[in-house]
Design a protein that fits this description.
single chain; alpha/beta; three-stranded antiparallel beta sheet; 10 helices
Length: about 350
């Protein structure tokens, strides 16, 4: 495993493109001033010792050395020893509805974006827990297998859009069945399925699937996103909304009754998601009540420092820079290291 011991220093990399821009601008200004004196080709004959390429080579050598120093300060490390450790935690599978109706904006900024932010904050509260992510519409698939890598969880979360699934609908049963297959075989660990949906146009079997999950000790929590009063679905093209085949604007409504039935069958809890953080707090409180058991996780416990490799590279680059003169060296006038030098 590769990592940086002091990643804060990587922010210094922003200096590098600034240096390139300044150098290119300086070259432009210098050549512009030279042209004011006459023909560039004629002036080159009057300055036989001036090299066209050496200053550029020297700049890129120093530039590369500076980049190596920045990476060196960030302390690159490679994991050299992996150990299996036991931690106390729970397992949570988040099943997120990504049907087109989740684009409705009856919660800010939209049902889907509100759900993604809620999941992100939920992941931030995890400590030694495992999380998996499933997305579903007319069918369900695993977006992220169960893991303790919360950084990857947030990264995959950002890529979720309705375009991931072309088949429209709300196959909640398929999402619950897939979630049940996502847990680890560890015994005694608290398990939960967090179902986030507006419950519209759902297919059959969702309540039965939740009952089966509850029988196996998995609690099903349902977060209903949206408004029972309904909202049009934006098309993403200005103020246009989706329409049915007859040209009428489609209005999507939160099916609270169905969501409540699933939560009850799954021995869980139903919470409506609005523009407050009440749903997030209620869900966190319930998950914290789950039994926590020893969860085995493999982690790197020793890291070898690699900064000395970059230090040698930077030193060699600087040494080469010192050996190259900006002007042509008359002692080596017959050696053509640079074409048309």
């Amino acid at each position: 495993m590769f990592r940086f011991g002091e990643p804060i220093y990587l922010y210094l990399l922003i200096v590098l493109p600034v240096l390139v821009i300044l150098y290119l601008y300086s070259n432009y200004r210098r050549r512009k001033k030279i042209r004011q004196y006459g023909s560039l080709e004629l002036l080159m004959h009057l300055m036989p010792d001036v090299s066209k390429y050496r200053p550029d080579v020297k700049f890129w050598l120093v530039f590369s050395a500076l980049a190596m120093v920045i990476f060196m300060l960030a302390r690159p490390q490679f994991g050299s020893k992996m150990e299996t450790v036991k931690r106390q935690g729970v397992e949570t599978v988040v099943a997120l509805d990504i049907s087109n109706s989740m684009l409705a904006e009856d919660v800010t900024p939209s049902r889907l974006e509100k759900s993604k932010k809620l999941i992100s904050r939920l992941v931030e509260t995890f400590n030694n827990d495992k999380v998996a992510m499933i997305v579903f519409a007319g069918e369900a698939f695993t977006q992220l297998p169960i893991t303790s890598d919360y950084i990857s969880a947030k990264m995959f979360l950002e890529t979720i859009t309705p375009s991931l699934i072309s088949t429209q609908g709300t196959d909640i049963r398929g999402a619950i069945d897939l979630a049940m297959k996502s847990f680890t075989p560890n015994e005694g660990v608290g398990r939960a399925i967090v179902l986030i949906t507006d419950g519209e146009n759902h297919e059959g079997g969702a309540v039965e699937a939740a009952q089966e999950a509850a029988k196996k000790g998995v609690r099903v929590f349902v977060l209903g996103v949206g408004s029972p009063d309904g909202s049009p679905i934006p098309t993403g093209n200005g103020s246009e909304f989706r329409r049915d085949k007859d040209g009428n604007v489609i209005v999507t409504k939160l099916n609270e009754q169905m969501c409540q039935e699933i939560a009850k069958a799954g021995n869980g809890m139903y919470v409506r998601v609005d523009n407050t953080n009440n749903a997030e707090r209620a869900l966190n409180a319930e998950i914290n009540k789950l039994a926590k058991a020893d969860v085995e996780t493999q982690i790197f416990t020793e890291f070898d420092e690699q900064f000395h490799v970059l230090a040698w590279i930077a030193l060699i680059l600087l040494a080469v820079d010192l050996m190259i003169l900006e002007r042509r060296n008359p002692l080596f006038k017959n050696v053509k290291l640079f074409k048309q030098d």
